[in-house]
Design brief:
By secondary structure, the protein is an alpha+beta fold. The protein is about 45% helix and about 15% strand. It has eleven helices and 13 strands. The strands form three sheets. Strands 3, 4, 5, 6, 7, 8, 9, 12 and 13 form a nine-stranded antiparallel β-sheet that branches. The protein has a two-stranded antiparallel ribbon with strand order 1-2. Helix 2 packs across helix 7. It is elongated, with a radius of gyration of 45 Å.
């Protein structure tokens, strides 16, 4: 019995101990340690933050992966470039119209001069008063047309003074500013076009794999980089300030070197244009863009005797007369022109009875002043007037105050009333005195002996040059020139 009671007591005691142990364990679980609670809180906070980021990443992938957004950006940029091109075309059109207006003004001026000559003839004859009234009416109409064109022309005070043709300085400054702005716009457009080309190449040549499109960033990163390139380029162009200057802008690269280059630019109406030969400041010239294929730079023009050609060395060096009338361009300009390329020479002439002829030479070069502006190169002759210039090949130029001829007993310029490449003395004298009757000539008239003698003076002459498709001319000595005596 005692033994049984001991066994029961031990079992009860053991059960009680296990129950107490279970209660203690449950108390510990109900009141966990602070470090465990802190870790659990941090884990929950981290999960919350990661879940929000995942949502953001998914949204960015969906937005950037759409090609339609990129295409919209490209379309917008293309519209901007198109509008810029339209602006450039408008500016070119305005510049072309200004040149055409200049040409029209000079054509009307020439018509007025012709009408004045007709009026002078009518007044001298005193036989047809009705013709005088008609000429006055025509002249009035021409003047009104010029006034109308000048009102349309957005420039002030266009004048021809001596041998130079002046344009208002304010207009020149405005054109300089426009050109500076155009250069800036053109540079920006070129940069944008290059960026667009790069974007298009990447868009069409790059193949986005399935993993790239479905990854956390995928191909979206590349598309975003391209858009950022666009933004950077536009921002750089916007940040560039206009480098406009109030002073004169160097536009020498825009000027053609002669009338042939003007014709190559698309102009086909003869008139006054601005050129810039090598190593010279820009100046105006008369361009003949119709005769024998055009492209001729005129350096001598005579047709009515309104300009005195019995001038000094300084006058013939720098030029004189009116580009809208009779003039001599200048030996200095002629030297610069004929030494920048190989040029051919064409001399047109007409008698008082209207008979026309021409003389042309395959090469024509004038030397510098220290050589007396001699004819340093004269090529092969061709034409209908005969050769009356080969005799003067290699000769220096002479004027009334500068005797460079080979006549020991006198001065050819004084004897023949002009200025020319006299030898001993001449076979041509295109800068002689303008006379209208054979009794006045006395060997001082305008003549080209192989066409008409001095007793039949010429009424019109025009000397002009045009470049050949060759490089700069070589300086040949006397024996190397192709001339005919």
């Amino acid at each position: 019995m005692v033994t049984l009671a001991l066994i029961v007591l031990i079992a009860v005691t053991t059960g009680s101990c296990e129950a107490n142990r279970d209660k203690k364990e449950r108390r510990k679980n109900d009141h966990p340690d602070k470090s465990l609670w802190k870790k659990e809180y941090e884990d929950e906070l981290t999960d919350a933050m990661l879940s929000s980021r995942k949502k953001d990443n998914v949204t960015r992938v969906v937005q950037s992966a759409s090609v339609s957004d990129n295409e919209a950006v490209i379309d917008k940029l293309m519209e901007t470039i198109t509008s810029s091109e339209k602006y450039l075309k408008k500016v070119d059109s305005i510049d072309f119209r200004l040149n055409r207006l200049d040409i029209e003004v000079h054509e009307k001026t020439n018509n007025i001069l012709k009408q004045l000559m007709e009026m002078m003839k009518v007044v001298r004859s005193d036989a047809y008063p009705e013709k005088l009234e008609g000429a006055l009416e025509t002249l009035k109409n021409e003047v009104n047309q010029i006034k109308f064109m000048m009102e349309k022309l957005p420039r002030s005070n266009i004048a021809v003074d001596g041998s130079e043709y002046h344009v208002d300085s304010s207009m020149d400054t405005r054109l300089s500013v426009i050109e500076a702005n155009l250069k800036s716009v053109s540079a920006g457009v070129d940069s944008i076009i290059s960026t667009i080309s790069e974007v298009k190449n990447r868009q069409f040549t790059r193949t986005f794999s399935k993993a790239e499109n479905t990854g956390p960033f995928g191909g979206a990163v590349d598309a975003l980089n391209l858009i950022n390139e666009f933004r950077r380029t536009l921002h750089e162009q916007k940040a560039k300030k206009c480098e406009c200057k109030t002073g004169r802008f160097d536009r020498s690269e825009r000027y053609p070197t002669d009338c042939h280059e003007i014709q190559m630019q698309g102009f086909n109406v003869s008139g006054i244009y601005k050129i810039k030969p090598d190593d010279m400041e820009p100046f105006y010239v008369l361009c003949d863009l119709t005769t024998a294929g055009g492209g001729w730079t005129v350096f001598q023009n005579r047709f009515d005797g309104s300009q005195d050609f019995y001038k000094s060395w300084s006058d013939y060096k720098h030029g004189f007369g009116n580009l809208a009338g009779e003039f001599w361009l200048g030996l200095e300009k002629l030297n610069s022109l004929t030494n920048q390329k190989l040029y051919e020479l064409r001399v047109e002439m007409e008698t008082q009875r209207g008979q026309e002829a021409y003389a042309a030479y395959s090469v024509f070069t004038v030397g510098p002043e220290h050589e007396g502006y001699r004819i340093s190169t004269l090529g092969t002759f061709y034409g209908t007037a005969g050769d009356s210039l080969a005799y003067h090949a290699g000769q220096k130029f002479s004027t009334l105050d500068m005797d460079n001829d080979e006549w020991k007993d006198g001065a050819c310029a004084s004897e023949h009333g002009g200025a020319w490449w006299y030898k001993e003395c001449d076979k041509s004298n295109l800068n002689g005195k303008y006379v209208t009757s054979t009794a006045e000539h006395r060997g001082q008239s305008i003549y080209w002996i192989s066409f008409k003698p001095p007793t039949s003076p010429l009424s019109k002459t025009k000397m002009m040059i045009r470049p050949l498709p060759a490089s700069k001319p070589m300086e040949f000595g006397e024996p190397a020139r192709k001339v005919r005596n």
